[in-house]
Design brief:
Layout (H helix, E strand, L loop, with lengths): L4 E12 L14 E12 L2 E14 L5 E3 L5 H13 L10 H23 L13 H11 L11 H13 L9 E8 L2 E8 L11 H13 L8 E7 L4 E5 L4 E2 L42
Parallel strand pairs: 6-7
Antiparallel strand pairs: 1-2, 2-3, 3-4, 5-6, 7-8, 8-9
Bound molecules: zinc ion.
The site of zinc ion (ZN) has 9 residues, from loops.
Length: 288
């Protein structure tokens, strides 16, 4: 496709030079100065004005002079004319530019309007309204240090075991915990704040350590399934559940843990509002 763009000039002013005689034919008051404005166009639509140029022509001998070739008297007279009746570049030469600005303003206003007044739930997929996701995110937010054996005996025991088994490279004080039991399912969430010190290929060992500890721990009678998620500093890096695992060690899909919270909800997403989208928990929180 050929694009037609470039510059064009249009005459914007025509003025007489007063009290000047032509240096060539000596005719008095014979000069007419035409001023042109050059503009950049795209498909002949003026986009931006560029520069002005003027040319003087003697009406008698038809000799023409560019501004650079004006005599001192002609220059003086031309400057006086410029002050009296300046040649302004017309607004239409910036038409394309103004049209683009206007278009931008319209698009911007529409997007602002959409942000503030648009339907709030239009972008929410049914996935985002799965209350199990919110429960998981809440639990991940609740990962924290374990201080007290009395308040959280299972978590404390797990922490003690993990600290004992831990391979070099991970600082035990930088590991935080959250655990929860639901029926026969046990959720174990760890956050390892200096995960970057562990090579990606070795991170899977953390899951092995946790599993070893869980199998050795007392007080887990009646628990059949373990749901283990390990957070790095920024994201989930390891996930292991009875059905699925994500042990590559870099970016794990934390939503593989959702079956811990129960079956996926089957209901019309329209009926779920934010207040009812919390799990009514039948769980025994270990921290209590
Ligand atoms: Zn002349």
């Amino acid at each position: 496709m050929i694009f037609f763009f470039g510059t064009r000039a249009s005459k914007i002013k025509e003025r007489q030079l007063r009290n000047i005689s032509c240096p060539y034919c000596n005719t008095a008051n014979s000069f007419t100065v035409s001023t042109y404005s050059r503009y950049f166009h795209f498909f002949w639509i003026p986009i931006v004005p560029l520069f002005k140029s003027s040319i003087a022509e003697c009406g008698h001998c038809k000799k023409s002079y560019a501004v650079a070739n004006f005599s001192p008297e002609m220059k003086r007279s031309f400057e006086q004319e410029n002050q009296r009746d300046p040649a302004k570049r017309p607004l239409w030469q910036g038409l394309g530019c103004m049209a683009l600005l206007a278009l931008f303003a319209v698009v911007f206003s529409i997007s602002l309007y959409g942000t503030f007044f648009g339907p709030k739930d239009a972008n929410k997929s049914s996935k985002a309204q799965d209350p199990r996701r919110m429960a998981l995110q809440e639990d991940i937010r609740n990962i924290g240090p374990v201080f007290s054996e009395e308040k959280a005996p299972l978590t404390y025991a797990l922490k003690e075991c993990i600290n004992y088994e831990l391979v070099s490279g991970i600082d035990p004080t930088k590991i935080e915990y959250f655990t929860q039991i639901k029926e026969d399912r046990f959720l174990i969430l760890l956050k390892v704040r200096d995960m970057k010190k562990v090579e990606v290929s070795s991170r899977k060992i953390l899951i092995d350590i946790i599993e070893d500890c869980l199998y050795a721990m007392e007080g887990l009678n009646g628990v059949n399934d373990f749901y283990i998620g390990i957070e790095g500093k920024w994201n989930t890096v390891l996930v292991k559940t009875p059905l699925e695992e994500d042990l590559e060690g870099r970016f794990a899909d934390k939503y593989k843990l959702l079956p811990f919270y129960g079956e996926a909800p089957v209901r019309n997403p329209r009926e779920v509002d934010s207040s009812s989208a919390r799990i009514t928990s039948d769980s025994l929180e270990l921290v209590k």
